[in-house]
Amino acid sequence: MRAAIRSVLVVISIAVTVFAGRSGVTLMAVNNAGGNLGIASVLPMRGALVGVAHPVVIIFGNPVADRQAVERAIDVRSAPARTGKFEWLDDNVVQWVPDRFWPAHSTVALSVGGLRTNFETGPAVVGVADIAKHTFTVSIDGVPAGTGAPTLPTPHHRPHWGEEGVLPASMGRPEFETPVGTYHVISKDRTVIMDSSSVGIPVDDPDGYRLPVDYAVRITSRGLYVHSAPWAIRSMGIENVSHGCISLSPTDAEWYFNTVNVGDPVIVQEGVPADEKEVDPVIP
């Protein structure tokens, strides 16, 4: 605890200088101008390939007694300037989330509290779940997926067939609504066991379940996933029937699992049902 108290007196300055990176992209070198905040480690890990929304996660060696003081002591600077926010994941873990994504295809070098690391960003794979439209739309570097390589799964007779980047999906039904917000992928598992008791629903309840789920892309610590749901294929693109997760067909889920990186953004929005959308205004 003493180390945590002393740590609030030291300022970490993260100053970002822009250089020419590979293929003309930005290389961001981050230099430390402070001392030691009792930091145990910084994530992403050295050499990791991550998505463009990956936060900088700082893990302290001891619980932090005064979070606000520590946040004030961490000065994050960048050029061009970026704003961001702190989120505490545990009593000794804080992450700084930039309001704007890191540049894609870049190298980010960090030195925080004497701990040096660097990580790579891959393509910007952005997934947008539209609750009202029952879709999950994926773009890669700003271009709808399927426009070029890598292509979307082979199209078949299903809702939204032929729409660039659009995968039919099913989100949470009314009593288990998928929470609206902007998330980032925190892990990927080829198969996980999902157990309803972890969210307060007994397995033997009519709404209970315990089953293996494939191509599970996790976006919250509380268990919100984008995953394969073969049992819900008939509802995808038509209605929301899940317990809150974003459900995709096995083929679509496998494609997304193999395309997205940990740290890539997933945006959940309400949207407007297609049959309620007003006619686009005529611009004179």
From TrEMBL:
The keyword Transferase applies. Coiled coil: none annotated. Residues 141-269 form the L,D-TPase catalytic domain. CDD domains: LDT_IgD_like_1, YkuD_like. One of its GO terms (biological process) is cell wall organization. It is an enzyme of class 2 (transferase). The active site is at H227, C245. Pathway: Cell wall biogenesis; peptidoglycan biosynthesis. GO terms for cellular component: extracellular region. One of its GO terms (molecular function) is peptidoglycan L,D-transpeptidase activity. Its EC number is 2.3.2.-. Gene3D superfamilies: 2.60.40.3710, L,D-transpeptidase catalytic domain-like (2.40.440.10). It comes from the Bacteria. Keywords: Acyltransferase, Cell shape, Cell wall biogenesis/degradation, Peptidoglycan synthesis, Transferase. The keyword Coiled coil does not apply. PANTHER family: L,D-TRANSPEPTIDASE (PTHR30582), L,D-TRANSPEPTIDASE YCIB-RELATED (PTHR30582:SF2). This is Putative L,D-transpeptidase 3. It comes from Mycobacterium pseudokansasii.
